[in-house]
Write a structure and sequence with these properties.
With 300 residues, the chain is an alpha/beta fold. The chain has helices at 4-15, 19-25, 30-44, 60-81, 99-102, 106-113, 129-137, 182-185, 198-209, 223-231, 245-249, 278-290; strands spanning 49-52, 55-58, 91-97, 120-126, 143-147, 155-163, 165-169, 180-181, 190-193, 217-220, 236-240, 254-256, 258-259, 265-272. The chain contains twelve helices and 14 strands.
Amino acid sequence: MFSLRQIEGFYWSAELSGLARAARHLNTTQSAISKRIQELEEALGVKLFERNGRRMRLTQTGERLLLLAREMLALRTRIVDLGKTSVVAPKVLRLGVTELTAMTWLHALTERAKTLSASVVIEPVVGASAELVTAVEHDRLDMAVVPDAFHNPTLQVLSLGAVDYSWMCRPGYVEVARTLSLGELMKYTIIDQAHASGLGDIIRRWLSERRIEITNSLPSSSLSAIAALTVAGHGVSYLPRRMFEPMIATGRLCVIDTKPKLPRVPYVVLGKRVRDDDIHASVMSLVSETADFAAGCVLF
């Protein structure tokens, strides 16, 4: 059987990117940490790290165990808290999300968070992705769910998968009986994600790589506003396909086939690298497990 000490040694070695750092954090020796990881690998019968000289990199099994280890250490904290007699004010964890998350799986996350700990309250903040990332960097938010368009080595990042986007318009606005080139599509007004939008940056960069530029743009930072403008016939937009399937099925929107198709857009949850906060790590893990961008919109 494995022990919590072994799980703890593995977790902090992965989180802090090295045995020496983990040893300092746990107030022990590097050889002791190495022994814990070796014993854990033997107990589980799997390899958790790929070793190349002094460098260590998690295996795929190690990546999966890291998520479970976060939860296990968070549960240990909750068990220890049972022995505390003093009343502790709930920890408010501020989570930034864009409208896509707010309208699809945020409600599921808040429900699951209730079972995480009575001492934790998730406070959602909805905004543009670039603004959310800036708020995390300046400690105004604890973490944020955004398109993977931001690169900051000081932030911890967990992948949440990718979202399928499609060009859409009001029926009759564009001839959709045939596949259009991107050049043909740009003859129409493009209702564009703008104003600090990571999604907009990804799409515009993808178009630029194909030497395509949006020349007639109707910019907006609101997903719901973009959808409303599209339904009203003011232009073509790129919208998350699964989220708007009900409106496609009822004929309020139609999909425009293009060659090439829009790329899948990766999403992540990112936050500050908190070294000694098991609750923070547990919520990051919960977000990773709950994220479901294919969920239907709760407003449709």
